[in-house]
Amino acid sequence: MKKEDRLKLLNKLSKMFIFLLFCSFTILYISQATGHYEYTQRKKVALTEDKIKQFEEDVANGKEIKIEDYMDNSEVNYQNKTSQLGLDLSENVGKYISVGIKGFFKQLNKLVED
Predict the structure, then answer these.
(1) Does the pLDDT at position 24 exceed 90?
(2) 8 Å CB contact between 71 and 54
(3) What is the pLDDT of residue 73?
(4) CA distance 51 to 47
(5) CA dihedral in degrees (18, 24, 25, 28; nearest 10)?
(6) Is 31 or 99 the better-scoring residue by pLDDT?
(7) Angstrom distances, CA of residue 94 to CA of 99, 101, 104, 107, 108
(8) 81-107: pLDDT as tens digits
(9) Helix axes 36-61, 3-33, angle to 10 degrees
(10) Integer Cα distance of 77 and 87 in angstroms
Protein backbone atom coordinates (compact mmCIF):
# COMPACT_ATOMS: atom_id res chain seq x y z
CA MET A 1 0.00 0.00 0.00
CA LYS A 2 1.36 3.39 -0.97
CA LYS A 3 2.02 6.07 1.57
CA GLU A 4 -0.60 8.32 -0.04
CA ASP A 5 -3.24 5.59 0.19
CA ARG A 6 -2.43 4.97 3.84
CA LEU A 7 -2.74 8.67 4.60
CA LYS A 8 -6.11 8.84 2.82
CA LEU A 9 -7.34 5.81 4.75
CA LEU A 10 -6.07 7.25 8.03
CA ASN A 11 -7.73 10.56 7.24
CA LYS A 12 -11.05 8.84 6.48
CA LEU A 13 -10.89 6.76 9.67
CA SER A 14 -10.02 9.77 11.82
CA LYS A 15 -12.93 11.78 10.36
CA MET A 16 -15.29 8.86 11.01
CA PHE A 17 -14.01 8.53 14.58
CA ILE A 18 -14.49 12.24 15.26
CA PHE A 19 -17.98 12.09 13.75
CA LEU A 20 -18.90 9.14 16.00
CA LEU A 21 -17.57 10.98 19.06
CA PHE A 22 -19.61 14.04 18.11
CA CYS A 23 -22.78 11.96 17.67
CA SER A 24 -22.23 10.21 21.01
CA PHE A 25 -21.68 13.55 22.75
CA THR A 26 -24.80 15.02 21.16
CA ILE A 27 -26.97 12.09 22.22
CA LEU A 28 -25.67 12.18 25.79
CA TYR A 29 -26.08 15.95 25.96
CA ILE A 30 -29.67 15.82 24.75
CA SER A 31 -30.46 13.03 27.19
CA GLN A 32 -29.04 15.07 30.06
CA ALA A 33 -30.71 18.29 28.93
CA THR A 34 -34.16 16.70 28.70
CA GLY A 35 -33.84 15.26 32.20
CA HIS A 36 -34.19 11.59 31.28
CA TYR A 37 -32.05 10.41 34.20
CA GLU A 38 -33.88 12.59 36.71
CA TYR A 39 -37.21 11.29 35.40
CA THR A 40 -36.22 7.65 35.92
CA GLN A 41 -34.95 8.44 39.42
CA ARG A 42 -38.20 10.26 40.27
CA LYS A 43 -40.19 7.20 39.17
CA LYS A 44 -38.12 5.02 41.53
CA VAL A 45 -38.70 7.42 44.42
CA ALA A 46 -42.45 7.48 43.78
CA LEU A 47 -42.52 3.67 43.78
CA THR A 48 -40.60 3.60 47.05
CA GLU A 49 -42.97 6.12 48.65
CA ASP A 50 -45.96 3.99 47.57
CA LYS A 51 -44.40 0.92 49.22
CA ILE A 52 -43.73 2.88 52.43
CA LYS A 53 -47.37 4.01 52.57
CA GLN A 54 -48.54 0.43 51.98
CA PHE A 55 -46.24 -0.80 54.76
CA GLU A 56 -47.54 1.81 57.20
CA GLU A 57 -51.15 0.92 56.36
CA ASP A 58 -50.44 -2.79 56.87
CA VAL A 59 -48.80 -2.09 60.24
CA ALA A 60 -51.76 0.10 61.30
CA ASN A 61 -54.23 -2.63 60.24
CA GLY A 62 -52.24 -5.33 62.06
CA LYS A 63 -51.58 -7.43 58.97
CA GLU A 64 -48.74 -9.95 58.83
CA ILE A 65 -45.62 -8.20 57.53
CA LYS A 66 -43.30 -9.87 55.03
CA ILE A 67 -40.39 -7.78 53.77
CA GLU A 68 -40.60 -9.45 50.33
CA ASP A 69 -44.00 -7.80 49.79
CA TYR A 70 -42.42 -4.35 49.99
CA MET A 71 -39.21 -4.98 48.05
CA ASP A 72 -38.97 -4.15 44.38
CA ASN A 73 -37.04 -7.02 42.82
CA SER A 74 -37.57 -6.07 39.20
CA GLU A 75 -34.35 -7.43 37.78
CA VAL A 76 -34.86 -7.86 34.06
CA ASN A 77 -33.06 -10.60 32.18
CA TYR A 78 -32.14 -9.35 28.71
CA GLN A 79 -30.34 -12.52 27.71
CA ASN A 80 -31.30 -14.13 24.41
CA LYS A 81 -29.64 -16.43 21.89
CA THR A 82 -27.69 -13.64 20.25
CA SER A 83 -26.33 -12.24 23.50
CA GLN A 84 -25.47 -15.74 24.70
CA LEU A 85 -23.60 -16.37 21.45
CA GLY A 86 -21.69 -13.11 21.91
CA LEU A 87 -20.84 -14.02 25.50
CA ASP A 88 -19.63 -17.49 24.52
CA LEU A 89 -17.60 -16.07 21.65
CA SER A 90 -15.94 -13.44 23.84
CA GLU A 91 -15.11 -16.02 26.53
CA ASN A 92 -13.51 -18.35 23.98
CA VAL A 93 -11.58 -15.53 22.33
CA GLY A 94 -10.42 -14.44 25.77
CA LYS A 95 -9.17 -17.95 26.56
CA TYR A 96 -7.20 -18.18 23.31
CA ILE A 97 -5.77 -14.69 23.70
CA SER A 98 -4.71 -15.53 27.26
CA VAL A 99 -3.00 -18.73 26.11
CA GLY A 100 -1.29 -16.82 23.28
CA ILE A 101 -0.04 -14.06 25.55
CA LYS A 102 1.26 -16.56 28.12
CA GLY A 103 3.05 -18.47 25.37
CA PHE A 104 4.51 -15.28 23.93
CA PHE A 105 5.91 -14.18 27.27
CA LYS A 106 7.18 -17.70 27.99
CA GLN A 107 9.13 -17.62 24.72
CA LEU A 108 10.32 -14.10 25.44
CA ASN A 109 11.49 -15.22 28.87
CA LYS A 110 13.44 -18.11 27.31
CA LEU A 111 15.15 -15.68 24.92
CA VAL A 112 16.13 -13.37 27.76
CA GLU A 113 17.45 -16.20 29.92
CA ASP A 114 19.62 -17.63 27.13
Answers:
(1) yes
(2) no
(3) 67
(4) 6
(5) 180
(6) 99
(7) 9, 10, 15, 20, 21
(8) 999 999 999 999 999 999 999 999 999
(9) 40
(10) 14
